[in-house]
Every structure is written in C-alpha cells, then in structure tokens.
Amino acid sequence: MSVRTKAAASLLAVLAAYLAGAVLSGHMSPFARRPLLDGTGPPAPYNWVNPPPALAPTNKPAESGSYTVTLKGASQPGVFQTNDRQAVLILPTGAIPKSAGATSIQLTLQPLNPAGLGSPPKGQAIAGNVYLIKGVYQPGGSKVTRLSGGQSEAALIYPLTASTKHTLIQSKDGKTWTKLPSTDQLANHQVLATKVTQLGYFAVAVPASGASPVPTPTSSGGIGGILTWIIAGVALIVLILALRAEYMRRRNAREQQTNRNKARRRH
Asked: What is the tens place of the pLDDT at every residue in 69-106?
C-alpha cells in the first residue's frame, strides 16, 4: 500500500470513528440524534415567544406540547417534546410517582416570555424562551411535584448567543432559579440536564455579558454553523484523497500489467 493510500485510509478511519461515535451517542441519548452534515447552512431559526425586533418579521411562534401519560402499575416511559422540538423531556418507566385514584397524567410543555418571570441567578441572563413543564394527575387534578428514580432528562434548544457557556436553570415557581448540572452541546445549540428530579420552569442561562445579541435574519449559525462547515470540509478532503489514492492504485496496476505484457513479448 502506497503512502498516499495509507494516508487516505487513515483519514477515512477518523471520519468513520466520528460517524460511529455520533451513532453511539444517538443510542445513548435522544438529544444527540441530530442530522450529520445536514446541509452547510446555519441551524434552523429559533422560535421565540417574544422575538428581538430584528427577527419579528420572520419569527415563527414557539410551539407547545401536550401528552397523556398512562399509569398502569408505573408511569409509562417516553420522549415528550414541544412540536418544534425546542424543549424535550425524557421520562423512564416509573418516573412519575403514583397518586391515589389517578390513572393518567396530563403532561404539558409550554413556552413563556421570560420577561414576566423572576430574574435568573446573579450575573446570568436567560437566552431564549422559558418553558413550563408540568404534570397533572387525572382524575383528581393535583400537580406532579417530583420525579422518581433520578434518571429523568431535559434539554432546551437556545438561540445564537455571544457566549460559549450555556447552562440549564430551573424554578419551582418561576421566581427563584437554581442551576442544574448540564452539558452544553454547542454544535446543536442545546443544553442537556440529566437526573432531573422535579418539573417546573426551565430556561437556558448564559453569562450576562454573553446574552443573546440582536441577530439579523441572515446571521450565521454561530459555532454550530462553523462546526458544520468544518466537518463538511474535512469530509470533502477525505473523499478527494480517497478518490485520488484509488486512481493512483489503478494507474500503477495498469502500468505494471503493461510492463509485464511487454516483457512476455520480448521473450
């Protein structure tokens, strides 16, 4: 195998490892299941409850989500999200505690304007919408106040910000906020929190100095868009090198065959 062929094979192996890792992460968490190399443009525009003035003409209103979760011995598992997928809640089996007489839970995810709620922790600002995730036992009408098992997860998509540090914050009453241990996935513009133990208000917080700027409708996709361009560029380079290596291999094979045929004719 030539040096060039080995180099191309190595690059292909790296790309394959990246793709395999992405597939594996998709199996590990539904929040990681985002399209790979889904075009070279920026991420989909964020849907605001109260958009910045520059985005108001093209803004699509943020959407809600509503589900009925059955209680048959234990609450059913599932992935529950708003219709525009900007807020997601994952509940394992039995995450919602039983309530006497209740046979189901009405689960809703509702986007809200953060302006009408309490201020985030000191030095922080809310990026995007606030989402109220609540459950109500049926029949009865009492609220779900906690989640069992410590394995529930929540994630929010956030708009383009001037910060690379995003965290998930939560509030029981929409007035006092606390930070949740979370993972910021810059390429996807989303924050994931695991081991969520209660429902309530959820939002993405950034340092106040890096709060969402007033973007224009043609603004780039930030880090996520740049990363997409980089990945697409690497994939294109790998493809070109692989094709070149294959062309060189075939040309060398033809030349060797031609030389062998000439040698036979001499003899």
From this structure: 999 889 999 999 999 999 999 999 999 999 999 999 99
- For residues 168 and 193, the answer to whether their CB atoms sit within 8 Å is yes
AA letter at 55: L
pLDDT in tens, 124-165: 999 999 999 999 999 989 999 899 998 999 999 999 988 889
Domain chopping of the chain, boundaries = 44-218
Query: Directed axis angle between helix 222-266 and helix 3-28, to 10°?
Result: 140
- Report the 3 state secondary structure along the chain: CCHHHHHHHHHHHHHHHHHHHHHHHHHHCHHHCCCCCCCCCCCCCCCCCCCCHHHCCCCCCCCCEEEEEEEECEECCEEEECCCCCEEEEECCCCCCCCCCCCEEEEEEEEECHHHCCCCCCCEEECCCEEEEEEEEECCCCECCCCCCCCEEEEEECCCCCCCCCEEEEECCCCCCEEECEEEEHHHCEEEEEEECCCEEEEEEEEHHHCCCCCCCCCCCHHHHHHHHHHHHHHHHHHHHHHHHHHHHHHHHHHHHHHHHHHHHHC
Are 80 and 113 in contact by the 8 Å Cβ rule? The answer is: no
Q: Residues of 146-165 as b/e, b for ≥16 C-beta within 10 angstroms? A: ebbeebbbbbbbbbbbebee
Q: Are 144 and 137 in contact (CB under 8 A)?
A: yes
On whether the 44-218 domain is CATH 2.60.220.30, my answer is yes
**Residue 201 and residue 40: Cα distance in Å, rounded?**
34
Q: In degrees rounded to 5, what are phi and psi of residue 179?
A: -80, 145
The encoded tokens of residue 149 equal 């098992």
